[in-house]
TrEMBL record:
Organism: Rhinopomastus cyanomelas (Common scimitarbill)
Pfam families (UniProt xref): Crystall
GO BP term (any one): visual perception
Protein name, as recorded: CRGN protein
Protein keywords: Repeat
SUPFAM superfamilies in UniProt: gamma-Crystallin-like (SSF49695)
InterPro entries noted in UniProt: Beta/Gamma-Crystallin, Beta/gamma_crystallin, G_crystallin-like
Family: Belongs to the beta/gamma-crystallin family.
Keyword Membrane on entry: no
Subunit structure: Monomer.
PROSITE patterns referenced in this protein's UniProt entry, alphabetically: CRYSTALLIN_BETA_GAMMA
Length: 133
């Protein structure tokens, strides 16, 4: 679930969304969004209706004003959840550009790469396989 607020710091009229929303205006909400609260999942929000325009990926958390998620405008017109489902997925990270150098493959969430044996200081390329996100 994601909640959009017209005012900063979660004030003013609000719009609660639980799935894809192709037009905030069709739901009676103007396209001015000054704060956002993401209660669950990850979301892609768009400047314009019908999933058009600049995209912003927002993860779980609070965004008290548009500078925390955009920085230039308080306009949003549509959103949809990021597909976080799938049974067959993996990611491969590479130290070098163009998928070169040492690599590591992951099939589960990993909050600390060094704990998986990755002792490199950077990642310059990655490949995502399967139906995960």
């Amino acid at each position: 679930q994601i909640t959009f607020y017209e005012g900063k710091c979660f004030t003013g009229r609000k719009l609660d969304v639980c799935g894809s929303c192709s037009s905030f205006q069709d739901r009676g909400f103007l396209n001015r969004v000054n704060s956002i609260c993401v209660q669950s999942g990850a979301w892609v929000c768009f400047d314009h209706p019908n999933f058009r325009g600049q995209q912003y990926v927002l993860e779980h958390g609070e965004y008290p004003d548009f500078y925390h998620w955009n920085g230039r405008s308080d306009h949003l017109g549509s959103c949809r959840p990021v597909g976080m489902h799938g049974q067959h997925y993996r990611i491969q990270i590479f130290e070098g550009s163009h998928f070169s150098g040492p690599s590591l493959e992951l099939t589960d969430d990993c909050s600390f790469l060094q704990g998986q044996g990755w002792d490199k200081t950077c990642i310059n390329a990655l490949k995502v396989y399967g139906d995960g996100a």
